[in-house]
Amino acid sequence: MRYSFFKQDRTTIIVYLVLVGLIAATSLLSDIFLTSRNIQNLLRQVVPLGLVSVGQTFAILTAGIDLSIGSVVSMASCLTTGMILGREPLIFPVVALVIVLALFIGFCNGFIITRTRVHPLIVTLGMMSVVQGGLLLYTKSPTGSVPPVFDFLAWGNVWIIPFPILLFAAVATAGIFVLRRTTFGRYVYATGGNEEVARLSGIKTERVKIITYMICSFTASLTGIFLASRMGMGDPLVGERYMLDSILPVLIGGTSLSGGKGGVSATIAGVFIFAILSNALNLLDVSAYWQWIVKGLIIIVAVAFYMSKKN
Amino acid sequence: MAENIVEMQKVSKAFPGVLALDKVDFSCLPGEVHAVVGENGAGKSTLMKILAGVYRPDGGKILLKGEDISFPSPKHAQNCGISIIYQEFNLIPELTVAENIFLGREPTKRGRLIDTPVLKQRSKELLADLEANIDIQSRVKDLGVAHQQMVEIAKALSLKADIIVMDEPSAVVSGRELQSLFRIIRSLKESGKTIIYISHRIEEIFQIADRATVLKDGQLVGTYYTKDVDKPQIVNMMVGRSLTETFPPREVGDQKEILVLNDVCQGNLLKNVAFKVNSGEILGLAGLVGSGRSEIARAIFGACEIDGGKVLLNGRPVKKTTPKSSIASGIGFVTENRAKDGLAYNLSVRKNLTLTILDRIKKWFFVKEAKEKEISKNCVNEYGIVTTGIEQEIQYLSGGNQQKVILAKWININPSLLILDEPTRGIDVGAKAEIYQLMRLLAKQGTAIVMISSELPEIIGMSDRIIVIHDGKVMGELSPSEATEERILMLATGQNIEQDQKKEKPLAL
Questions:
Q1: How many independent structural domains does chain B possess?
Q2: Tell me, what's the ipTM?
Q3: What is the DSSP string of A250-271?
Q4: Angle, alpha carbons B83-B85-B86 (nearest 5°)
Q5: How many angstroms from the chain centroid is the CA of residue B449?
Q6: Strand, helix or coil for residue A162
Q7: Is A202 on the interface with B (CB under 8 A)?
Q8: Nearest-Cα residue of chain A relative to residue B336
Q9: Is residue B204 located within the same domain as residue B312?
Q10: CA distance B338 to chain A (A)
């Protein structure tokens, strides 16, 4: 197969150039940035953000959005630790159960969106509230525990590469591959590009949308399970920030909210830009509140840039 | 001779791939009805949109009452007294008639508050002037198109417009409603307004206009007093060639009954529609906009469901068709509105071309990319699609080339039946001719083609049989030799030919 990672459209190349520029600038500004310790640290931070953003890319490519991602992350983390409670033999059944439950939530999102034609923003916002509420009924404070083997997920190394990096690389590659090479990937672009055209071309657009929301929830559940391993316990509020944080890298990468344009490789650049920016601002000792302001402005500037390019 | 109220000098405008206007001169006198005629794509609407400030031209200037106002913004044009009434009205469906008339210019009291009594009073007066019997409190979405048109005219009058441009008003109203529109135009003219009337229906121009400006392929043919010219002369100027030349000679393929519609009903849009389609022929479906033509196409293709009746494909009844099943049984459907449901505009030419055949070029879950590229390249060469390459996003292609991509996408499925809804709308003459050739070639090879069109010359020139639809019913079938624009229009406006022959008898409603 003649597959090339470098076969990208123009916007994606620009995003990668920005990323390279950012890395160069940060390494000049801070001596610590390029230390192996900081890089490992950075990569481990990238993983949860990257996983949810890959899922979100699918939803946004179909001109949808998934706001329930954050609560699914929290749910996955709490249920994993809460049900395993340190018992090693339960790891696989519990993880499987959590993933199935997340897929079911994704299915519900997709099913309600396609049947009722209510905007995904509303449906997934409602679903976020439902899942979060259910989770807070289950536990209000950090809960559960995991056996030592489970630490491997967040802290283990394969040879010298941290395992979470491999996990993220696998998910991202799968995402790129599915979107680029499979018929389903093409259906996603077509549905986002023009749903009626896709439907009239014989594509089951409703099914496509349902599957994208299941992919979203799936990546969210992986993130939750990963966070459970990283913290050793489940936190019912750990996922909160991912509702917005999963969307921003996708937009920075140039994927259009109106659907049909963009992709996972662009999102990955967005994830790194977003993470390095946080990392750099931390290293430069910029207060968290200023960081919010900077990130907010960057996202507006980025999307305004894509809009101006479009016209 | 009076002063021109408006004068456009050497106005040019280019769109990607098309020179829409080429140094066109145009002028109007106060108190005249001036028709602008030409085929679709001749540049009529573009010229008017430049006058109204919607488009910025590439060259030329505009004089209003002798003063250079080149080139206003839409707002500025409005303030100068130029109002334009589009085919697709600029009304907000959820607001009432009165609110729409004064939208953005609501009469106020104490600075900020809307003065509702004045708003209502003035709307009532405006509509009374037009002798239009419309409740100013009703919402625009509940009005018929003819009434919506009245609201637009009232809005133009409320702007104290001296020049009112009407963009193909007869495309949406007909018969009695058109006559009452003409009455209003005449009374506006008497009160000194200038009306610019865009149309491609020639009879209307002789009924209503003092002068007519003829455009063809973006160029000015000339401006004439309607009393000095006759209909064939205008047609000749519009078309610039005799009609038969544009259309390929009629050659039909093997004729076999392929599709039968039996009493197909859908809500109150389709009423007992029945007709047959044979392989190897082009069947023309004529009718006014909203007559149910497109609904018939959508019903056959399975893009919407039907309530009653039967559709037989190759002699077998089809139950619960979906686009997917229709494609599998060899039906292709080129929709009316390219932008809305014709193409995925931010996808590449390649991805648009293969959307219908992904199932045939996949292995397991994967698209065979090499195969896909080969097919796409072949399509681009075979149909002469002008693009920088198969990876070009389709939105950057000209209308004609976009349409060729859509046609190719459906020809790729090897259709036994191809439904074309307005296949040549908004594309230039050259591409039109190519599409006609292609349609004829397909028919010759045995494909059944159902062509829906609002352009009567196209219907008459291309079809092997013509079916006329009115109000969701089949009004009659004509052969191309017996079809004339008048006869089709007669049927399309619901006047039966037999009834028409006994003219003394009053028309029953």
A1: 3
A2: 0.74
A3: HHHTT--TTSSS--HHHHHHHH
A4: 135
A5: 20
A6: strand
A7: yes
A8: A197
A9: no
A10: 9
Closest listed residue to residue A64, CA positions, set A200, A250, A297: A250
Can you tell me whether residue B293 is helix, strand or coil? helix
Distance (Å) from the C-alpha of residue B347 to the closest C-alpha of chain A?
Answer: 7
The residue out of B385, B407, B429 marking a domain boundary is B407
Share of chain A above pLDDT 90, in %: 52
Q: Does A200 touch chain B (CB under 8 A)?
A: yes
**CB contact at 8 A, B344 and B355:** yes
Percent of chain B with pLDDT over 90: 17
Strand order in the sheet with B448-452: B331-334, B417-421, B448-452, B282-287, B465-470, B473-478
Q: Is there a contact between A194 and B356 if contact means CB atoms under 8 Å apart?
A: no
pTM tops 0.90: no
Count, residues in chain A: 311
Amino acid letter, residue B462:
M
Determine the Cα–Cα distance for residues B120 and B141; give it in Å rounded to an integer. Answer: 18
Q: What is the pLDDT of residue B18?
A: 67
The nearest CA of chain A is from the CA of B418 a distance in Å of: 13
In the sheet that holds B33-37, the strands lie side by side as: B82-85, B163-167, B194-199, B33-37, B211-216, B219-225
What is the CA A29 to chain-centroid distance, rounded? 29
The domain that contains B217 carries what CATH number? 3.40.50.300
Vertex B145: Cα angle to B164 and A196 (nearest 5): 110
Q: Residue B206 in contact with residue B235, Cβ under 8 Å?
A: no
List of chain B residues whose C-beta atoms are within 8 Å of the C-beta of residue A256? 346
Q: How many CB atoms neighbour CB A171 within 10 A?
A: 21
With vertex at residue B224, the alpha carbon angle to CA B223 and CA B229, rounded to the nearest 5 degrees, is: 145
Q: Which backbone phi and psi does A132 adopt, to 5 degrees?
A: -65, -40
* Residues constituting chain B: 509
Domain that holds residue B312: 246-330+414-501
B226 and B364 part of one domain? no
Question: Contact, B446 vs B253, CB < 8 A?
Answer: yes
Fold of A10-310: ABC transporter involved in vitamin B12 uptake, BtuC (1.10.3470)
CB contact under 8 A, B359 and A202: yes
Instruction: Tell me which residue has tokens 């009160």.
Output: B191
Q: Do A190 and B303 touch (CB under 8 A)?
A: no
Distance CA(B369)–CA(B373), nearest Å, equals 6
Q: Closest CB to A194: pick one of B343, B367, B369.
A: B343
Residue type, B224: Y
CA distance B271 to chain A (A): 24
B345 vs B453: CA distance, rounded Å: 24
**What was the pLDDT predicted at A215?**
96
Structure tokens at B343: 């193409």
Residues of B within 8 A of A202 (CB-CB) are: 323-324, 326-328, 356, 359
- B137 and B215: one domain? yes
Bridge partners of B448, per DSSP, are B417
Residue B279 has pLDDT above 50, yes or no: yes
pLDDT higher than 90, residue A48: yes
From the DSSP assignment, how many helices (H) and strands (E) are in chain B?
19, 24
Give the start-end residues of each E strand in A75-184. 157-158, 161-162
- Mutation to test the B interface, candidates A11, A177, A197, most B Cβ within 10 Å: A197
- B438 is written with which tokens? 């292609």
Burial degree of B159 (CB within 10 A; 0-12, 13-18, 19+): middle
Among residues B389, B407, B425, the one where a domain terminates is B407
